[in-house]
Amino acid sequence: MAAAAAANPNQPAALAEEGEFSKLNEGIAHFYDTSSGVWEKIWGEHMHHGYYDPGLPLRAAFTVNHVDAQVRMIEESLKWAGIPDEGEHKPKKIIDVGCGIGGSSRHLARKYGAEVIGITLSPHQARRATSITSAAGLSSKVSFQVADARNQPFPDNHFDFVWAMESGEHMPDKEKFMAELVRVTKPGGQILIVTWCHRELCAGEESLNPKEQKLLKKVCDAYYLPAWCSPSKYLSLAHTMGLKDVKSDDWTEYITLFWPAVIFSALSLRGMVGLCKSGWTTIKGALAMSQMVKGYKSGLIKFALITAHKPIHES
Ligand code: SAH
């Protein structure tokens, strides 16, 4: 991004940066427009990691039910964040930020009887999410639109629960992203972000080492991700923004079976045919899957959860 700003000395840096961001958004939209169909055929409605018992052998990737593991991920995340499922404090109005084809949105609507709005950059996903939701009889509760999480078309203080499952890693400006999540949250409401991060830097380190940076660059190129951050970046933003009950956790040990399972499914006949039909962007994504396995194994990539409340009274 800095390089892009330097390339045109007549353009203000902020504008150059926004130009880069909108190019990134176009890439993300194209990636999900072209890859969501094959994902849905093989994996179903959830486009996020599953939650597995830690320490399972690799061969379990062939035998466990991965959709159950994905639903378990949603349930365990809600439990960890302490979202009440009964009483007056259970969520009534939820935003699903980066909703994919709406798997979480429908789950949350059913679980809480809540009204849910899902946003995505991909028109294909918004259409598909709407049609699955209608077939499920949930259209009166759940709706979808194409919108940017960093510039949401909603008023201030609108949702009592903000859910962002594996979308934060796509956001180029974490400060703007968090500020927008906070803006749309009602006072007393809660934010839950489940996202890919890089490890914390050690004392004396100023950046990741070149080998680690090279690995992350390959992942970024394949999945349309901007620069990564560590979980503490989210924590410090949450504190700076005056959020309360801020906490985070590292669930890397619960997701290790996921990428091997995705790789096995891509190598199946159905996976291969689907990949070929989806085109180069999706194939590039498939080729980068082994980098994710390496990144998690080496401790470079972390599967992080961050939650916080928006205070009822500004302090
Ligand atoms: N949360 C979903 C999908 C995860 S895939 C699930 O768990 O099933 C990542 C999602 O983030 C995609 O739907 C993508 O369109 C969305 N996304 C990425 N950047 C975004 C942005 N700036 N604004 C809105 N959605 C975004």
Automatic annotation (TrEMBL):
Region (SAM motif III): 184-193
Tagged with keyword Methyltransferase: yes
Gene3D superfamilies assigned to the protein according to its UniProt record, in alphabetical order: Vaccinia Virus protein VP39
UniProt organism field: Ceratopteris richardii
Protein name: Methyltransferase type 11 domain-containing protein
Keyword hit for Lipid biosynthesis: no
Pathway as given in its UniProt record: Alkaloid biosynthesis
Region entry SAM motif I, spans: 94-103
